[in-house]
Amino acid sequence: RLNEAALNQTDEDTYVTVCCALIDPAERTVSIANAGHPPIIYYRSREKECIPGCGDPGIMAGFLPRQEYAT
Predict the structure, then answer these.
(1) pLDDT for 38-50, tens place per residue?
(2) Pairing between strand 49-52 and 18-24?
């Protein structure tokens, strides 16, 4: 819905980058959806190290109609 809202409410020279994370502490999982935003970096405090995020940043929101984003 965010993509369609951005597409309908902006001009053709405007778009949005988005990175959204759903954290489930009980399952110890993180699900990430990315729309044109640079890849995230995980920081593991126990190991004191940064780990590059995975996956393609995808296409930005508000650029193409009916775009779907993987998690």
Answers:
(1) 778 888 899 999 9
(2) unpaired
